[in-house]
Design goal:
Shape: elongated
Distance between the termini: 47 Å
Helix content: 40-55%
Strand content: 15-25%
Number of strands: 11
Structural class: alpha/beta
Number of helices: 14
Order of helices and strands: HHHHEHEHHEHEEHEHEHHEHEEHE
Radius of gyration: 25 Å
CATH architecture of the largest domain: 3-Layer(aba) Sandwich
CATH class of the largest domain: Alpha Beta
């Protein structure tokens, strides 16, 4: 037989109305009492009746993750971010739903129909790049609180501080290397590129300028230059005083550097120090100093921002910036 709120009340020796308030029916309740009730519910195996709660509160307790599927880059989420979002939302008594919608459906009925089918209370929006220009306005028309993931904007978003992260990495390289370089082979060849590409370059330049050092940049301006990037990287490694510190935007950049270094007989860790900002430790076969994009912190900030908006429509909507740190 299913456990009821009355069972919890009898187990704790308190009123059923007090138990009901712990599960969202409204009314003041101290943190200690709420914690006792939730702990007892967990021990007894109580499962709230979502339909009844929806009728009582007007909410279903669902946060819908809206994700594009028309471009490969739309769906780029860190491998552990789904789980982190689920766990963070549970802490706010919210469940996670997922809707992947092609661009052609965003301007028609697909988006409102999908949101309606989930009966979502609020939205999490994941578009790394290629965001349709009309999408922000389209989401506002739905009338639901929406939080963007890893999108640099002033309101309603959580995103990483890529500029400060790159400055941190370059500062560390400057402290241990005679020369410092930044490489992003695809910077000028990525349509609708993510803001992190420009922010990291700006952070790297600012750190070098602040230290009075020259930042050597490998940023091919044409497709022809990009195709010849291996030769450019090799010349850079030949010409610069050792040891050389290199911050790469992505795996492809550091892989190219490490291959060129091995061909030249340079020893990683002695002649060459590599650094990268990533959501998981790079596996390149050579040592890499790793600066963490913390998916757990991003998920917790997103869940908190959405929960605040659901609890109070006038809550502050200022975006939350997640610092990039060295992993422990």
């Amino acid at each position: 037989m299913a456990v009821t709120q009355r069972d919890i009340a009898e187990h704790l020796g308190i009123g059923q109305r007090t138990v009901s308030r712990a599960f969202g029916s409204g009314g003041a309740l101290s943190a200690d009492v709420r914690e006792r009730i939730l702990r007892a519910a967990d021990v007894l195996g109580y499962q709230p009746h979502l339909g009844a709660r929806a009728m009582r509160t007007g909410r279903t307790g669902t946060a819908l993750l809206v994700q594009g599927c028309s471009h490969a880059s739309n769906a780029r989420l860190a491998p552990d971010l789904y789980g982190a979002l689920h766990d963070a939302l549970v802490g706010h008594d919210l469940a996670l739903g997922l809707a992947r919608i092609g661009d052609e459906g965003l301007s028609g009925a697909a988006l409102p129909d999908t949101v309606s089918s989930f009966r979502a209370d609020g939205l999490l929006v994941s578009y790394e790049t290629n965001t349709p220009d009309f999408l922000p306005q389209r989401l506002r028309q739905l009338g639901l609180p929406a939080v963007w993931l890893n999108r640099a904007q002033a309101k309603d978003a959580v995103y990483f501080d890529d500029q400060a992260g790159a400055a941190l990495a370059v500062g560390d390289l400057i402290a241990r290397c005679s020369s410092v370089a930044y490489i992003d082979v695809l910077l000028h060849h990525t349509p609708h590129r993510h803001a992190s590409r420009d922010h990291r370059l700006a952070g790297a330049r600012a750190a070098a300028m602040g230290a009075g050092r020259k930042l050597h940049e490998c940023l091919p301006l044409s497709e022809r230059d990009a195709a010849a990037s291996d030769a450019v990287i090799q010349r850079m490694l030949q010409d610069l005083p050792k040891p050389i510190g290199v911050l790469g935007y992505g795996h492809i950049d550091l892989a190219a550097v490490s291959v060129a270094a091995l061909r030249m007989g340079l020893e990683p860790g002695r002649d060459l120090h590599l650094a990268m900002i990533a959501d998981e430790e790079p596996i390149l076969g050579v040592p890499v100093t790793w600066y963490l994009l913390d998916s757990q912190a991003l998920a917790q900030a997103a869940a908190q921002l959405l929960a605040d908006r659901l609890a109070n429509a006038r809550a502050k909507r200022k975006s939350r910036v997640i610092p990039i740190t060295r992993p422990l």
